[in-house]
Amino acid sequence: MTRIAVERAIDAPPEVVFAAVADIEHLPDVSEDVVGIEFLTEQRSGVGTRFRETRRMGKRTMDTDLEVTEYDPPHRVRMVTDSHGTVWDTVFRITGTAGGAHLEIDMDARPHALLPRIMNPLMKPMFRRGMQKHIDTLAEHCARRAAQD
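The structure assignment produced for this chain is given below.
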């Protein structure tokens, strides 16, 4: 298993951070790498919501089907996908602080095929850079939103 964690203080209330993470329909507004969302269920939020995310990966795009498996506003969201021989289990934890919020993103990659068992550990630095970029973009978005309110 490959585990990656990133965290960051954010100058915005926990509710703003939670909305940025959990409002699936608006993920393309939060992350420049998310270029499309297609809901696979009638449900648009909460546990059981399934959706297809189209994400820019360098010069290509990749579609990933995700499911929300935990939803505890404004504290925690978990999204899981089984893609390319690996179960990707990502938890977003938000805690309030005196100056705003603290966001932790933990991603566990559990391979169930041979190639990912070999490649995932080798690609861990690339995964970490992507997660760091995502959390930095989230922080900027949330700070702008909080300043507007």
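Interim note for the steering committee: The radius of gyration is 15 Å. The beta strands are 2-10, 34-39, 50-57, 60-72, 76-83, 86-97, 100-111.
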